[in-house]
Design a protein that fits this description.
single chain; 495 residues; alpha/beta; Leucine-rich repeat, LRR (right-handed beta-alpha superhelix); 19-stranded parallel beta sheet; 19 helices; flat; disordered N terminus
Length: 495
């Protein structure tokens, strides 16, 4: 789970009726609107899907030149604002002094700013603050001590800072704290003992810390815990036994640890578990029999694990599963046959698997499938005939496959397709004539293909296109300019 995920989750819960971001500076000056954030929907390593992710991604990008004096203008103009996003801008400790009069501020993102403990002194009068993002800043244990002046704080992101176990002693003053991100910090097992002093914690991220099996024992007192991230820690099979009593747990990420199949037996008592991430562990096919007992599971990530076709049959009981990622595994055509039983499946990642055209025939019955990633596979034109029957597809990844111009004609039936990735596919200008019929397309990647300006003429019919990747193609600046003129919504073009 990435550093801001906990902060992201809170935004949906405590969203204000209107928001001020540093991008207001650009708008006020009459400058160009910032381009929308591109989602890596076909990433080979998905993350926990926490509730506010889409909302945060939709925020305008913060101009990197927003400085302290600009913040003074923003604070003076928007005294009643409830949310302020300053991530990665040029605001410093001195600039934070301008926030003093924002009495209604509830959400403040200061992530990746060049601020220190001294700057946090300026936040003491923001008594309404509920959500605070400090990830990637220069704060230390002393800075966390200053947060005691914010008694109503509900969400705190401290990822990638220099804090140590000593900082957690100060959190006991934050009696309402529900979510905390401590990932990529110097927190150890000793510090985790202090988390028991915050019994309301629902979401905890310890990814990339030195947490061991001994530290997990301290989490047993957090009876309200719903989401726990332990990616890239030092836990082993034995440590998972400490999680068995966390009956309210709904989301668990334990990837990139030395865990094997028998350890998953400790997770069976977690009857409410809906999201389980096991990337780059060693569950083996036998270990999946324990996973299959998690009847409420909706999301399962097995990227980079040692599961094979034989293990796929174990997943048949997961009738409610909606998202399955098998990227970088040895799963092939035979394994896909076992997935026919997963009728609720909406998202499926098969990136860098052994799947071929033959195997895709087994997906035809997955009528609810909306996202399919087949990047870096041996899928070709024949397989697209099966994909064309998935009428609800919105997102399709075919980068680095054997798909050619001829095969793309079969995709015309996917009228709901919004995002299509064809990087390095064997396509030419002729193929784009077929894509022109996919009128709902908003994002299209043709990077490293053989298309030219002639092919761009066909794309002028894609009136909803927002983002287009033409990197390493034969298109020219003139061709891109003409396309932009024809497509007023086209905000982002890479070439």
């Amino acid at each position: 789970m990435r550093a801001l995920l906990l902060f992201i989750a809170a935004i949906a819960t405590w969203a204000a009726t209107w928001t001020v971001t540093a991008a207001d500076k650009a708008d006020e000056a009459g400058g160009a609107k910032p381009t929308p954030h591109r989602k890596a929907i076909h990433s080979p390593h998905p993350r926990l899907e926490l509730p506010g992710l889409d909302k945060l991604l939709a925020q305008p990008q913060v101009p990197s030149d927003l400085a302290d004096e600009d913040l003074m203008t923003v604070a003076a103009r928007f005294k009643d604002t409830e949310e302020l996003y300053l991530e990665a801008s040029r605001v410093t400790d001195a600039g934070l002094a301008h926030l003093k009069g924002l009495d209604r501020l509830r959400v403040l993102d200061l992530s990746s700013l060049n601020i220190t403990d001294a700057g946090l002194a300026h936040l003491k009068d923001l008594e309404s603050l509920e959500v605070l993002g400090l990830s990637g800043t220069k704060i230390s244990d002393a800075g966390v001590a200053r947060l005691k002046a914010l008694p109503d704080l509900l969400v705190l992101a401290l990822a990638s800072t220099s804090i140590t176990d000593a900082a957690l002693a100060h959190l006991k003053e934050l009696r309402h704290l529900e979510e905390i991100d401590l990932s990529e910090t110097r927190i150890t097992d000793r510090g985790l003992a202090r988390l028991a002093e915050n019994p309301r914690l629902r979401v905890v991220s310890l990814s990339g810390t030195a947490t061991t099996d001994a530290g997990l024992v301290h989490l047993q007192s957090l009876k309200e815990l719903e989401s726990l991230s332990l990616d890239r820690t030092r836990i082993t099979n034995a440590g998972l036994a400490s999680l068995s009593s966390l009956s309210g747990l709904k989301e668990l990420a334990i990837g990139d640890n030395w865990l094997t199949g028998p350890a998953l037996a400790h997770l069976v008592p977690l009857a409410n578990l809906q999201v389980l991430e096991l990337p780059y562990t060693r569950p083996g096919d036998e270990g999946l029999k324990h996973v299959a007992k998690l009847a409420r599971l909706k999301t399962l990530v097995l990227d980079g694990t040692d599961v094979t076709d034989a293990g796929m049959a174990q997943l048949a009981p997961l009738g409610e599963i909606e998202s399955l990622s098998l990227a970088e595994t040895a799963v092939g055509d035979q394994g896909l046959e076992a997935l026919k039983a997963l009728r609720e499946l909406r998202r499926l990642s098969l990136i860098r698997t052994l799947v071929t055209d033959k195997g895709l025939a087994h997906l035809r019955g997955l009528a609810k499938l909306e996202e399919l990633s087949l990047d870096h596979t041996q899928v070709g034109d024949e397989g697209l005939a099966s994909i064309a029957e998935l009428s609800r597809l919105r997102i399709l990844g075919l980068a680095n496959t054997r798909v050619s111009s001829e095969g793309l004609s079969r995709l015309k039936r996917l009228g709901r397709l919004e995002q299509l990735y064809l990087d390095r596919a064997l396509i030419t200008d002729a193929a784009l004539e077929h894509l022109a019929e996919l009128t709902e397309l908003a994002e299209l990647s043709l990077a490293r293909t053989r298309i030219s300006d002639a092919g761009l003429e066909h794309l002028k019919r894609l009136r909803r296109l927002v983002a287009l990747d033409l990197t390493k193609t034969d298109v020219t600046e003139q061709g891109v300019r003409k396309l932009r003129q024809a497509l007023p919504r086209l905000a982002e073009v890479a070439w």
